[in-house]
């Protein structure tokens, strides 16, 4: 009986796992590697061809083992720029390789071709070299990548173009055919590339883009049915570029008028267009060196820390604002309340957030709710908090996510039941408290607690 159960378990596993379709080939791949910021952005325009006799419903993506822990985002679009769903996949006889499958919107029929664009964003892939520099030196970094697209399919033809942030290139691998023009390096075309082919690409060049990392972000969203939603963020940032070697000279820093400097003087945060009551402070108090610019669809908030950030330096601050609830809080057809808000906001351009914890404070009296997130998150234990005049307590949902970039700025959804009675719950409590207070005062002034006999009693 035990052997039978084991056999059934194995059969179930085999059924759920998939095989690599060898009849699917990449007819052409145009690959662009952007090394212009602290993030590595790789875009691959893939022309698929089905050489088999059966329709193809999905294609497989595989993570390069050298990039474990560095892939922050994977995305795919079809020829009409529609987003395609990406799911985890188990593949037989492939060891520890991590696979994902891209679901095509329409089956790829035998003998037909289609185009899919795959986007990949890497973090911690640009290594400062040297790791320490003086205040006046330029920042040099090295990139370790792959000349070829790492894929489980055969690639008939491929070209790779690397776009750098500077013309100043120290060295680069010269896998022929290769050409270099200004800040662009072109590899290929390469032909007949076997599956899972790796060939290391190393590029050493100048990159003075801001290497600014949010090491931890605490985001709190407080929902109120009185017409306001309050958002507050506790942000810890660090310059993760080449560390500053030697002492810092304020005099030399003020004399340096170069715009391409590795230090960070300021950066721009984007807030919702309806944001108001904006505040920005650190542990020393309010920071007045910030500028708010109103655009048509958003608000630009230029933040300037109290001191410029060099490699290895860090800072922390608090940013808060309020938005009208009618733009994010709705009623569905069942009469339930639906909240749609961002799990994380835009902190700065080409941002990298190591860890974010988002806390959603629901209105008092909410006990039944459903949460939908745009991607997998870690759900932390729920909590209870009390605000002004609260005697019931408010449920706090806490969500945690690591390694976020701008593509993770997406909406979550919470559906919950809530009674409008709670709108007058606190005013009624306040009215009752004031009434009891006045009643107590009236009783107090009318009672006589003296121990002596009144004068009129003595005369009688």
Describe, in plain words, how this protein is organized in 3D:
It is a single chain. By secondary structure, the protein is mainly beta. The protein contains four helices and 31 strands. It has helices at residues 2-16, 250-255, 421-446, 455-459; strands at residues 24-35, 40-50, 56-62, 71-78, 86-89, 99-108, 113-122, 126-128, 132-133, 140-146, 155-164, 169-172, 178-181, 184-193, 200-206, 212-223, 228-239, 243-244, 267-272, 276-282, 285-286, 290-294, 298-303, 314-324, 329-331, 337-342, 353-361, 369-372, 378-385, 394-404, 411-416. A hairpin with a 4-residue loop joins β16 and β17. Residues 1-16 have low confidence and may be disordered.
Give a brief outline of the structure.
This protein has 460 residues and is mostly beta strands.
């Amino acid at each position: 009986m035990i052997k039978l159960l084991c056999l059934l378990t194995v059969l179930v596993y085999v059924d759920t796992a998939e095989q690599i379709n060898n009849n699917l080939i990449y007819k052409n791949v145009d690959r662009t590697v952007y090394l212009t910021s602290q993030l590595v952005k790789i875009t691959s325009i893939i022309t698929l061809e089905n050489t088999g006799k059966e329709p193809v419903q999905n294609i497989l993506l595989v993570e390069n083992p050298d990039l474990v822990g560095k892939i922050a985002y994977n995305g795919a679009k079809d020829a009409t720029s529609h987003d395609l769903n990406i799911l985890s996949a188990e593949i037989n006889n492939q060891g520890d390789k991590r696979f994902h499958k891209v679901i095509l919107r329409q089956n790829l029929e035998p003998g037909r071709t289609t185009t899919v664009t795959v986007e990949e964003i890497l973090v911690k892939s640009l290594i400062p070299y040297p790791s320490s520099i003086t205040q006046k030196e330029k920042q040099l970094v090295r990139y370790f990548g792959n000349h070829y697209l790492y894929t489980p399919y055969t690639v008939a033809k491929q070209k790779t173009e690397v776009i750098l942030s500077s013309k100043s290139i120290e060295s680069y691998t010269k896998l022929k055919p290769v050409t270099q023009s200004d800040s662009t390096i072109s590899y290929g075309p390469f032909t007949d590339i076997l599956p899972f082919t790796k060939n290391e690409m190393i590029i050493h060049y100048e990159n003075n883009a801001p290497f600014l990392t949010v090491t931890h972000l605490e985001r709190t969203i407080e929902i109120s049915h009185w017409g306001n939603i309050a958002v507050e963020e506790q942000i810890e940032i660090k310059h993760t570029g080449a560390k500053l070697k030697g002492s810092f000279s304020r005099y030399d820093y003020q004399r340096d008028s170069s715009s391409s400097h590795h230090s960070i003087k300021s950066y721009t945060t984007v807030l919702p267009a309806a944001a108001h009551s904006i505040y920005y402070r650190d542990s020393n108090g309010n920071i007045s060196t910030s500028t708010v610019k109103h655009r048509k669809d958003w608000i630009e908030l230029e933040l300037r820390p109290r001191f410029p950030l060099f490699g290895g330096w860090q800072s922390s601050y608090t940013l808060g604002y309020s938005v009208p609830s009618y733009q994010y809080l709705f009623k569905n057809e069942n009469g339930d309340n639906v909240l749609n808000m961002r799990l994380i906001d835009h902190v700065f351009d080409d941002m990298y957030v190591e860890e974010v914890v988002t806390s959603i404070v629901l209105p008092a009296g909410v006990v039944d709710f459903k949460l939908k997130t745009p991607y997998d998150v870690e759900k932390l234990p729920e909590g209870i908090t009390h605000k002004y005049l609260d005697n019931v307590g408010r449920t706090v949902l806490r969500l945690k996510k690591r390694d976020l970039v701008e593509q993770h700025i997406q909406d979550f959804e919470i559906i919950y039941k809530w009674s409008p009675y709670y709108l007058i719950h606190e005013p009624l409590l306040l009215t009752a408290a004031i009434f009891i207070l006045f009643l107590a005062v009236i009783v107090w002034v009318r009672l006589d607690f003296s121990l002596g006999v009144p004068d009129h009693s003595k005369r009688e």
